[in-house]
Each structure stands twice: as structure tokens, then as C-alpha cells.
Amino acid sequence: MLGFSPLLQVSTFGAELSSEACRDLGFSSNLLCSSCDSLGQFGLHGIEPVCRQCCQEEARLELRKMYAGAILEVCG
């Protein structure tokens, strides 16, 4: 747990961190919030708030738009 002490010192309650700050803390820019839910299984409850500030919500099925097709035009 000592390796995570810089994470525990971050105090930006409820605010999102910049992508640079999250990267410096070791979080991927593609981090999904569902991954933060799993931290407790590994005894990492202390970094969950920071994880939540760096994660992206998954798109919900009902919010997605489906199209019948698309046309890709390549200009050269």
C-alpha cells in the first residue's frame, strides 16, 4: 500500500482530474468506471475515489444510436 501513497494525497473531492494528472498517477486514459468497482476485491479501497475521478462511464445501450449502414469515402 505504500506504493500508492501519492494517490491517497490527492484531494480534489468530486472533481475530475486532468488526463495528464491521471496518467501521472498510473491510470489509463481508457479507464472505465466499472474497473473502479473491482478495486475492493484487491484491498485497494483507498484509491477508489481517485479512480472515479479518472474514469469514463460506459455508454448505455439505450443511449447508443444504431445506423443501418455507413459510407466510407477515401480521398487521395
Automatic annotation (TrEMBL):
InterPro entries: Sep15_SelM. GO terms for molecular function: oxidoreductase activity. One of its GO terms (cellular component) is endoplasmic reticulum lumen. It comes from the Eukaryota. This is Selenoprotein F. It comes from Eleutherodactylus coqui (Puerto Rican coqui).
